[in-house]
Amino acid sequence: xxxxxxxxxxxxxxxxxxxxxxxxxxxxxxxxxxxxxxxVGPNGAGKSTLLKGIVGELRPxxxxxxxxxxxxxNIAYLTQxxxxxxxxxIVIHDFVAxxxxxxxxxxxxxxxxxxxxxxxxxAAVGLSGLENRxxxxxxxxxxxxxxxxxxxxxxxxxxxxxxxxxxxxxxxVRDLAGLxxxxxxxxxTVISVLHDFAHVREAYPETLLLxxxxxxxxATAEVLSEANLQRARRSAxxxxxxxxxxxxxxxxxxxxxxxxx
Length: 261
Ligand code: ADP
Ligand code: MG
Description:
Blueprint: E1 7-18, E2 21-32, E3 36-40, H1 47-55, E4 62-67, E5 76-78, H2 92-97, H3 101-104, H4 112-124, H5 140-154, E6 158-162, H6 170-185, E7 189-193, H7 197-203, E8 206-210, E9 214-219, H8 220-223, H9 226-238
Parallel strand pairs: 3-7, 3-8, 5-6, 6-7
Antiparallel strand pairs: 1-2, 1-4, 8-9
Helix pairs in contact: 4-5, 5-6
The structure holds adenosine-5'-diphosphate and magnesium ion (MG).
Adenosine-5'-diphosphate (ADP) binds near residues 18, 23, 43, 47 and 49.
């Protein structure tokens, strides 16, 4: 996936899984630095597993995954949204400031430059004025804004987003998608697990279609062809995943004009 840029990630026959059961098989190839890559596929396709492998939460069962020019601990990783984040007794300011821990340490005070960066990150996601609001009181969209502010502070060359727009309002999606665009313009590599194909087509030049293995990878328009999507669906069905809740919901913008089931 490159236009000559050096790779930031290299997969070499990579297989990842749990308790010796493979979840995603035999990935190969490079991801070029500066890529803006969507990862799509049915439920259970191994999308989240792949991100966990990249951050080192899972060790390869087979093969290798190489990070090039970046350390694991410097990857910014937004996990699939959970209710856990919202249950911490912490205010927005401190929640966002955690994005600086890798750079400042958890227990050192923040200097003036750091305090300014925190303020700017909160402003960039539109949460200025809410700094002292406990995160447990936020809407889903506001919490996701706070999580994005934390990613801003991590200032990472590699940003992984796992279903960043699930269950949040359209305005928030638009604002956060704008941040993703900005990160990519700044030269960062962004890999996002997404379900909304209309959004993928519009905002992501490259796509990786997974169904426990790579079904297709490359230019988004080609990867999201009807034939590839059918292959992915069939593969999910063969593996016993429920296809209707799977790959293609919310695909109102499908170029072929009909909805996938
Ligand atoms: P996706 O994100 O594409 O929906 P996942 O990567 O979460 O899929 O899951 C891929 C497969 O791995 C699924 O079959 C899922 O049940 C399994 N799996 C995911 N997480 C775990 C886990 N913590 N322990 C065991 N199996 C898991
Ligand atoms: Mg997932």
